[in-house]
């Protein structure tokens, strides 16, 4: 799986909520239609899970679990409420929390082997340092700020989708993002010589 931290922040933008709602309604009767929603949201759910868990194998497991739970819970989805993306990311957030409750962090052997086989070790070390620095900055945010930053940039959710997923108003989400980014910038400025 491509490194989620190196991927572009705004890729695989799904269709509009009306399309998603129609597809979700069709998938209630024809489960094979759920594949379209899976294709639209897989990368975003994976990136969010990866940033929250920090491990590709765990992110893949959680992402698969999210779509399994979403398919099982599809009959309870109501398109008029908040939209498909907020509904799906509530499931995603809950799956990540459940994962933390169930497991202790483990090192993924595949990632260790991947690190040693890179053609440009200097570039790889620098990229690893940037990832660690980013993870450190995100870890120092408040839990709410961390959620909003990751939902906005890792999962590429709109402010409305984040607000619906977190059950907050859009202004509060924008303020959390602004304060989180400002705090990250201040931390970076403090670290510079």
Please write the string of helix (H) and strand (E) elements. Answer: HHHHHHHHH
Count every beta strand, where a strand is a DSSP E run of 2 or more residues: 0
The first-to-last residue Cα distance is: 36 Å
Rg, Cα atoms, Å: 18 Å
How much helix, percentage-wise, in residues? over 70%
Structural class estimated from helices and strands: mainly alpha
Would you tell me the overall average pLDDT? 81
CATH superfamily of the largest domain: RNA polymerase sigma factor, region 2, helix turn helix motif
CATH fold-level topology of the largest domain: Rna Polymerase Sigma Factor, Chain: A
How many strands, which pairing sense, and closed or not: the largest β-sheet? Answer: none
Shape: globular
- Low-confidence spans: pLDDT under 50, at least 5 residues? 1-15
Architecture per CATH nomenclature, i.e. the level-2 architecture of the largest domain: Orthogonal Bundle
Q: How many discrete domains?
A: 2
Strand content: under 5%
CATH class of the largest domain: Mainly Alpha
Number of helices: 9
Which descriptors apply to this entry?
0% strand; disordered N terminus; 72% helix; 2 domains; mainly alpha; Rna Polymerase Sigma Factor, Chain: A; single chain; Arc Repressor Mutant, subunit A; 193 residues
């Amino acid at each position: 799986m491509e490194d989620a931290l190196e991927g572009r922040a705004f890729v695989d933008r799904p269709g509009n909520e009306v399309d998603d709602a129609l597809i979700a309604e069709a998938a209630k009767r024809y489960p094979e239609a759920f594949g379209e929603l899976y294709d639209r949201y897989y990368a975003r759910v994976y990136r969010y899970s990866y940033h929250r868990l920090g491990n590709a194998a765990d992110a893949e497991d959680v992402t698969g679990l999210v779509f399994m739970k979403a398919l099982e819970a599809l009959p309870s989805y109501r398109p008029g409420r908040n939209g498909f993306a907020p509904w799906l990311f509530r499931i995603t957030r809950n799956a990540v929390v459940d994962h933390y409750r169930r497991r202790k962090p483990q090192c993924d052997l595949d990632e260790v082997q991947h690190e040693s086989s890179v053609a440009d070790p200097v570039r790889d070390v620098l990229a690893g340092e940037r990832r660690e620095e980013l993870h450190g900055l995100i870890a120092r945010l408040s839990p709410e700020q961390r959620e909003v930053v990751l939902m906005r940039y890792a999962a590429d959710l709109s402010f409305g989708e984040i607000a619906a997923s977190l059950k907050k108003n859009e202004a509060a989400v924008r303020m959390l993002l602004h304060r989180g980014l400002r705090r990250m910038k201040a931390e970076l400025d403090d670290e510079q010589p």
